[in-house]
């Protein structure tokens, strides 16, 4: 992990003040002419990079990095997660992203389907139509429903025999519990909830995700281990268009895999389907400009007229004005609607992380310097309580209501 080293010969009062002003976590103290780093330090190394040169340096731990022959690990594999009635759409978003990434390495895109015969027949052509080069199938009646022991055994077999350089999973409840088990088996890295992925020519995957409460966009690279693993939330990447399938199907042997399990599935109870902001095409998002549910009635009226739903920023959930399932952002849901209108939202990084993939962003805020305007396609600098009723009037007029 490494540690920060204070080089006392370089510390003067001015240097200390500069370092204190740079640290985003208030972790640097200067008392009795002595500089200290306290327990608030998150090792972000801002003081090393941005501070007076040499005042604080970073000393890496001496660990012998495991060595890996990267040439033996090829291709990007996507784990195919099945919902009860379909392939989870995040799978196709990941296949689309994988296709982009292999442009750099000139390697192949794989998908791994662990399923019953009936499910295989139902989904295999659909999966291939999204541009997979090879679909690896583990078929067994015992794979009809997800089972951690059985699925892990199949996935481990896939990785051991096919040696993919990268394995991607949806950042769903299932993907988030499955991926760590596989990563720990292979003693390799796993980056959760990536918001961007890139690829280096040497096949190192660039995994970007917010860290330290969204204050930093961390770039994570696993230089010494393979496979590289990441989970990615639904709606971060665009679903590609279906096309003519060109890929091949490879059936993998399952009889020597672990098919017994201590986990017994007793029953499946479907959750009632509720309004889901991740699926909405049009969203009207309300922020702290609204002090109560009553005040938000104009937002509901606007959303109704546009056939959309109302979502909120986190303070609205914290204030008990709206349920947490309507929260957009880092600790809420990621949305990518065709249109989002933000009303009285400042544009904090944690909010923007959950909506910057929207196709058209229109924002209304009375502060011309609000950072929401940096990510908006159109901005209106004014009071929402003035602009929204006027918008409603114009839309009604256009609709002849
Ligand atoms: C670890 C962590 C995770 C977080 N996760 C999330 C998350 O998932 N989602 C999220 O939203 N936040 C999250 N936050 C909180 C985030 O940092 C911000 O505090 C939050 O997004 C601010 O919400 P807001 O824009 O509604 O409120 P504010 O920042 O208070 O902004 C209100 C805006 O409304 C404008 N305004 C006020 N009145 C009017 C009016 N009458 N007309 C027009 N404009 C008006 C103001 O100019 C201001 O820009 C997280 C924070 C942390 C630390």
Description:
- The chain contains eleven helices and 19 strands.
- The chain has three domains: about 5-60, Alpha-Beta Plaits (2-Layer Sandwich); about 70-250, 3-Layer(aba) Sandwich (Rossmann fold), CATH 3.40.50.620; about 275-400, TPP-binding domain (Rossmann fold, 3-Layer(aba) Sandwich), CATH 3.40.50.
- It is flat.
- The model has no long low-confidence stretch (mean pLDDT about 95).
- The strands form five sheets. It has a seven-stranded parallel beta sheet with strand order 9-13-8-5-6-7-14, sandwiched between helices. A five-stranded parallel beta sheet has the order 16-15-17-18-19. A three-stranded antiparallel beta sheet has the order 10-11-12.
- It has helices at about 15-20, 45-50, 90-105, 115-130, 150-160, 175-185, 295-305, 315-320, 350, 370-375, 385-400, and strands at about 5, 30, 35, 55-60, 75-80, 110-115, 135-140, 165-170, 190-195, 195-200, 205-210, 215-220, 230, 250, 280-285, 310, 340-345, 360-365, 380.
- Helix 5 crosses helix 6 and helix 7 runs parallel beside helix 11.
- The structure holds flavin-adenine dinucleotide (FAD).
- The site of flavin-adenine dinucleotide has 29 residues, from helix 8, helix 9, strand 18 and helix 11.
Radius of gyration (CA) equals 25 Å
**Number of discrete domains:** 3
Characterize the overall form. flat
Which class do the helix and strand fractions yield? alpha/beta
Which CATH class of the largest domain?
Alpha Beta
Percentage of residues in DSSP E strands = 15-25%
Q: H/E series, N to C?
A: EHEEHEEHEHEHEHEEEEEEEHEHEHEHEH
Number of helices: 11
Count every beta strand, where a strand is a DSSP E run of 2 or more residues: 19
Report the mean per-residue pLDDT as an integer. 94
Strand count, sense and barrel status of the largest sheet are: 7 strands, parallel
Under CATH, the homologous superfamily of the largest domain reads HUPs
């Amino acid at each position: 992990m490494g540690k920060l080293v204070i080089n006392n010969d370089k510390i003067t009062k001015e240097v200390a003040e500069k370092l204190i002003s740079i640290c985003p976590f208030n972790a640097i103290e200067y008392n009795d002419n002595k500089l200290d780093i306290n327990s608030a330090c998150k090792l972000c190394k801002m003081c090393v990079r941005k501070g007076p040169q040499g005042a604080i340096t970073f000393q890496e731990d001496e660990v012998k990095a495991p060595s890996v022959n990267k040439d033996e690990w090829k291709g990007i594999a996507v784990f195919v997660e099945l919902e009860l009635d379909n392939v989870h759409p995040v799978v196709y978003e990941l296949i689309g992203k994988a296709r982009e990434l292999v442009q750099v390495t000139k390697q192949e895109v794989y998908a791994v389907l662990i399923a019953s015969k009936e499910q295989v027949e139902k989904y295999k052509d659909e999966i291939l139509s999204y541009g997979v080069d090879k679909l690896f199938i583990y078929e067994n009646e015992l794979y009809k429903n997800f089972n951690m022991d059985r699925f892990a055994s199949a996935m481990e077999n896939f990785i051991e025999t096919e040696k993919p350089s990268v394995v991607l999973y949806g950042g769903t409840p299932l993907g988030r519990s499955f991926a760590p088990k596989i990563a720990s088996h292979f003693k390799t890295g796993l980056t959760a909830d990536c918001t961007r992925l890139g690829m280096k020519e040497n096949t190192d995957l660039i995994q970007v995700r917010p860290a330290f409460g969204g204050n930093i966009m961390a770039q994570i690279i696993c230089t010494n281990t393979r496979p590289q693993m990441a989970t990615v939330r639904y709606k971060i990447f665009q679903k590609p268009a279906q096309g003519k399938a060109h890929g091949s199907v490879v059936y993998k042997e399952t009889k020597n895999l672990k098919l017994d399990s201590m986990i017994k599935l007793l029953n499946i109870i479907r959750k009632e389907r509720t309004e889901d902001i991740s699926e909405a095409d049009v969203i009207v998002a309300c922020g702290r400009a609204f002090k109560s549910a009553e005040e938000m009635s104009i937002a509901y009226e606007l959303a109704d007229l546009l056939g959309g739903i109302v979502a909120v920023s986190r303070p609205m959930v914290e204030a008990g004005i709206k349920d947490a399932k309507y929260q957009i952002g880092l600790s809420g849901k990621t949305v990518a609607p065709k249109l989002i209108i933000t009303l009285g939202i400042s544009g904090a990084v944690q909010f923007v992380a959950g909506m910057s993939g929207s196709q058209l962003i229109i924002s209304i805020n009375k502060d011309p310097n609000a950072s929401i305007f940096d990510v908006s396609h159109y901005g209106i600098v004014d009071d929402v309580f003035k602009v929204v009723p006027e918008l409603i009037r114009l839309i009604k007029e256009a609709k002849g209501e």
